[in-house]
Design brief:
Blueprint: E1 5-10, H1 16-32, E2 37-42, E3 56-59, H2 67-84, E4 89-92, E5 105-109, H3 123-141, E6 146-149, H4 152-161, E7 169-171, H5 176-181, E8 196-200, H6 209-226, E9 235-239, H7 246-258, H8 278-283
Parallel strand pairs: 1-2, 1-4, 2-3, 4-5, 5-6, 6-7, 8-9
């Protein structure tokens, strides 16, 4: 096929990083492959580049507004869409295969919660939902042409939970492994490190930032008991480009106050919820 038609299934991208990945990938692929026609199948405007490149055809199904409806559209209606447009391949940003389509498919596995043991109680509804996702993932990995993970560590964790066909596994070179594993110098002893949390991203309730705040507070109290003369308050910094859930942000502010930590605006210890200048968010991780 001289000018291939490739579909990007971004129906699962509805918030946060999922939208950023979908939007950036579509835009980059459109520039890198100008002779391709990209069908961008999305349920949220934020998944689409702005402006939309000339070789991108957005498809916004009105019926795919909820999780159940998205799954129904994906498995029932989308195969007909792919056939009608003579699509040559599909990139599945949600990971799960379109089982009724014989079109070659590549699954991108972004949500590690499917194969990673939980660190806190999730409730029976969420646990059941994740268990269902894991069943569908097991059915998918052996039926798609490629299984793409965003880091080697993520793929290794998935292998310990799910039987992956090794010949189909790819690692997307986005720099995570190089950043975390390239430095061979031993880190300083844990006892000499100040408790510190850096979270760069949008504030959502499902990210459970309150657990990290509690852990930092407990660690700070433990260190103060061991060394009362040493200043070892937790330093907690949250940088967010968008304050998606104001109610959740207010709850986090209250939690920090209950634990006895003021929201100090100092270089040493600060917690910021809401918008921060991009240059600050970009430079902070190297501090």
């Amino acid at each position: 096929m001289t000018n291939p038609i490739v579909a990007i299934d971004a129906l699962s991208a509805i918030s946060g990083g999922g939208l950023s990945v979908a939007r950036g990938l579509c835009e980059s692929l459109a520039v890198a492959r100008p002779t391709w026609t990209l069908l961008m199948i999305a349920s949220h405007d934020g998944a689409l580049p702005s402006p939309v490149p000339a070789n991108v055809e957005p498809i916004r199904p009105a019926s795919a507004r909820s999780t159940l409806r998205r799954w129904h559209f994906e498995q029932v209606a989308l195969p007909r869409v792919l056939s009608r447009h003579d699509v040559g391949a599909v990139l599945l940003l949600g990971g799960f295969k379109i089982f009724a389509s014989d079109c070659p498919q590549a699954a991108v596995w972004q949500n590690a919660h499917i194969w990673t043991p939980p660190v806190a109680s999730q409730g029976w509804r969420l646990s059941a939902y994740i268990a269902l996702q894991k069943i569908v993932m097991r059915a998918t990995v052996s039926r798609v042409e490629r299984n793409v993970f965003l880091s080697k560590d993520s793929a290794d964790r998935a292998r310990r939970s799910i039987d992956l066909p090794e010949t189909s596994v790819d690692i997307a070179p986005i720099g995570i492994d190089a950043h975390f594993y390239a430095n061979t110098a031993p880190p300083p002893p844990f006892a000499r490190r100040d408790p510190y949390l850096l979270a760069v991203g949008d504030v959502y309730a499902h990210k459970r930032f309150e657990l990290a705040i509690d852990a930092l507070a407990a660690l700070g109290a433990q260190r103060r008991n061991r060394a009362p003369d040493r200043r070892s308050d937790p330093r907690c910094l949250e940088l967010s480009r968008r304050l998606v859930d104001p109610d959740q942000a207010e709850r986090l502010h209250e939690r920090v106050g209950i634990l006895g930590y003021a929201l100090a605006r100092t270089p040493d210890r600060a917690m910021r919820l809401g918008s921060s200048p991009d240059h600050r968010a970009a430079s902070r991780p190297s501090d």
